[in-house]
């Protein structure tokens, strides 16, 4: 079986973007691949985190994976910091990555603009840690939203560079960017992707939002003055709502447009809200159930850590040997 790796960072509550761009697709892919799904807590601390919240969210994300249909018996579910090889491999790979490459990453540029002087070195190095995550498991495929494509390309470049410098060590991973849900946009600013660390809560739907909150946020979503439902870049707000329906129902955007011929934005918004509520309700109920059984969650991440440590340490030892470290 080919290997698949992906993860989400516990830097905020999960959004509909994380769900449609990542988790929902993993559920399908797990049948076909030897899958590793990680909660990437080391990535989360690249920006300031409250320890109590970080702990709670880490478990919540793990529970959301399972509640969404990721099967712990088929996949390896683990927490990144339980596998120290990630941090160590990152150091090694740092020495094969150029400052110039990292400073060209758009996510870094966006976030550093927002944070100014107080940006951490960790945020700058973030893509190297992501490369380590992926390369340690001999990953073939990395399902990500479109926003992560550039980071994945860097991981490929680093792998190829290391392989050429020493000898074939890493499998060179491919990105898998599913069309539906590839990029869900901010409801208040549909030129920007929906993000869990966005300040304005009206911009995102949380997986955990109540039906009333979902209805309110969708009804306030920014649209346009055209007044006709089309699927076009000229109407990014409407396009985003259509994309959300498409990602949830599997319907093609052009068929959704046809369904709404002659109808107004209010009807479209009402329907989007109900479709989201119906999709999220069973997940919310299951997450709550899982979170009340901490012993079960612990058994899952312990089992996951054991398998992940075994595989990751093997790759790490290989890297150390090739670099020229004396091994114990
Ligand atoms: N808006 C989105 N549309 C589609 N996919 C998305 N993803 C994130 N936002 C969208 C996908 O979710 C996965 C996990 O992402 P992450 O948490 O590791 O980092 P991120 O991409 O930086 O996510 P956020 O929500 O924007 O977090 P913050 O605000 O903390 O930076 C990835 O597969 C990503 O593509």
Characterise this structure.
It is a single chain. With 328 residues, this protein is mainly alpha-helical. It folds into two domains: 3-177 and 294-323, 3-Layer(aba) Sandwich (Rossmann fold); 201-288, Tyrosyl-Transfer RNA Synthetase (Orthogonal Bundle). It contains 13 helices and five strands. The strands form two sheets. A three-stranded parallel sheet has the order 1-2-3. Strands 4-5 form a two-stranded parallel sheet. Strand 4 (141-143), helix 8 and strand 5 (174-176) form a beta-alpha-beta unit. Helix 3 (51-67) crosses helix 12 (265-291), helix 7 (121-135) crosses helix 8 (149-165) and helix 10 packs across helix 12 (265-291). The mean pLDDT is 95. Bound molecules: adenosine-5'-tetraphosphate (AQP). Residues 8-9, 11-12, 15, 17-18, 21-22, 144-145, 147-148, 181, 183-184, 193-197 line the site of adenosine-5'-tetraphosphate. ATP binds at residues 9-11, 17-18, 145-147, 184, 193-197. Homodimer. InterPro entries: aa-tRNA-synth_I_CS (IPR001412), aa-tRNA-synth_Ic (IPR002305), Rossmann-like_a/b/a_fold (IPR014729), Trp-tRNA-ligase (IPR002306), Trp-tRNA-ligase_bac-type (IPR024109), Trp-tRNA_synthetase (IPR050203).
Keywords:
Rossmann-like_a/b/a_fold; 328 residues; two-stranded parallel ribbon; 5 strands; EC 6.1.1.2; ligase; binds adenosine-5'-tetraphosphate; Tyrosyl-Transfer RNA Synthetase; nucleotide-binding; globular; Rossmann fold; 7% strand; 55% helix; 2 domains; cytoplasm; three-stranded parallel beta sheet; mainly alpha
């Amino acid at each position: 079986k080919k290997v698949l790796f992906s993860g989400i960072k516990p830097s905020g509550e999960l959004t509909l973007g994380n769900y449609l761009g990542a988790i929902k697709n993993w559920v399908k892919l797990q049948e076909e691949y030897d899958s590793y799904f990680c909660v990437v807590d080391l990535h989360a601390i690249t920006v300031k985190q409250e320890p109590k919240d970080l702990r709670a969210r880490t478990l919540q994300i793990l529970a959301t994976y399972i509640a969404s249909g990721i099967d712990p018996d088929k996949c390896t579910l683990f927490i990144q910091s339980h596998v120290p090889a990630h941090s160590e491999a990152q150091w090694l790979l740092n020495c094969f990555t150029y400052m110039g490459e990292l400073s060209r990453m758009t996510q870094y540029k966006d976030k550093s603009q927002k944070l100014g002087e107080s940006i951490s070195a960790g945020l700058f190095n973030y893509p190297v840690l992501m490369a380590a995550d992926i390369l340690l498991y001999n990953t073939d495929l990395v399902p990500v939203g479109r926003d992560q494509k550039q980071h994945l390309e860097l991981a490929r470049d680093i792998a190829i560079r290391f392989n050429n410098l020493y000898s074939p060590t890493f499998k060179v991973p491919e990105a898998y960017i599913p069309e539906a849900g590839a990029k869900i946009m901010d409801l208040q600013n549909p030129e920007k992707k929906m993000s869990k660390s966005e300040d304005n809560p009206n911009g995102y739907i949380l997986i955990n939002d109540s039906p009333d909150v979902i209805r309110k946020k969708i009804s306030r979503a920014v649209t346009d003055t055209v007044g006709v439902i089309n699927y076009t870049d000229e109407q990014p707000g409407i396009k985003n709502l259509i994309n959300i329906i498409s990602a949830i129902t599997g319907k093609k955007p052009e068929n959704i447009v046809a369904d709404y011929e002659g109808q107004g934005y209010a009807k479209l918004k009402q329907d989007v809200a109900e479709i989201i509520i119906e999709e999220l309700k069973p997940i919310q109920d299951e997450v709550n159930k899982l979170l009340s059984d901490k012993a079960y969650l612990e058994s899952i991440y312990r089992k996951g850590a054991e398998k992940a440590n075994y595989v990751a340490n093997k790759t790490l030892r290989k890297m150390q040997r090739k670099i020229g470290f004396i091994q114990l």
